[in-house]
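task queued by scheduler; priority normal; single chain, no ligands, no partner chains; default sampling; output format set to structure tokens
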Amino acid sequence: MPFRKSLCRLFLTAAVAAFCLSTPVFADAPQVRSQAPGYYRMMIGSYEVTALLDGTHPFPLDTVMTEQSSQGDGTPQNYYDKNRQQADHLLAVTFQKTPPEGSINAFLVNTGAKLVLIDTGAGTLYGECCGKLIENLRAAGYKPEQVDEILLTHLHMDHVGGLTQAGKMVFPRAIVRVNKLDADYWLSQQGEQSAPTFLHAIFEADKAVLAPYIRAGKLQTFEGTQELVPGIQSVPAPGHTPGHTAYKISSEGQSILVWGDVVHVAAIQFPEPGVTVKYDSGPAQALATRGAVFSEAAKTGIWIAAAHISFPGFGHIAIQDGKYVWVPANYSTNLNGKTN
């Protein structure tokens, strides 16, 4: 009898163990499976600059990245086709692979007198990956109705798409400013007719998202270098588009350059700044602009705010072993109005 009881206990123990091993174990707290709000702040003098994430998406470098033809005729050729091994290596060094995940960043500047948004993200134009700018703007403590000025670096969809929702202005109070060269090109029928077919969607998107602002008399153009808002100056950076513009924000002896699309894939274009993208309206000019910006930023140590470098896109440019490198901002909770 005692033997039977022992045997029964043994079988029961084995059965319970088998059941436990075959049944999933759940934590008391389920996984959240969502990212933290996409905003990050820093101070430039007395100006508060907040990076806002619109979303991330796979960047198709295998079809988009180009380089100058070896024939010297100025015709861009597919970079990845000729340099697949090198490109994959440069990505692998930073623990990425093709296609890398690219950020779409915009930047909100509170000068104390005005609230200025530089670029608006893709909105709904890139699908479900993006369109999170307003959500992150609110998480950062602001409302779209409070934005006074919108400065556009250029008129590509991932920089203007967030201007409207369902055909209505998202920023009803804001004046929208863009370089005249970009407005004249992207908003013209002649420009669309002369452009490559793959660019036609950009022309149509620009007309749609800017239409309510144009009807309200809220679209204003500028030329060259101007102080558009006290402490915020336009800096021509042509090549990616005809009127591609960076913005230099300065306060109390400190500065940051919001440079738009000077770089699309940091892992490749810092060590190889000669790599361009097929969306560049003037590849040679874009290359020259990138070289000039890299050189000046490395020399002066100015802060950079980049649209397509991994969020939040704040950092510096340095030179190591004769090559440019991106040095991301050190995460800081210090918002006392002073930066390093």
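post-processing summary
- The domain at 39-59+99-264+298-316 is CATH 3.60.15.10 (Metallo-beta-lactamase; Chain A).
- The mean pLDDT is 92.
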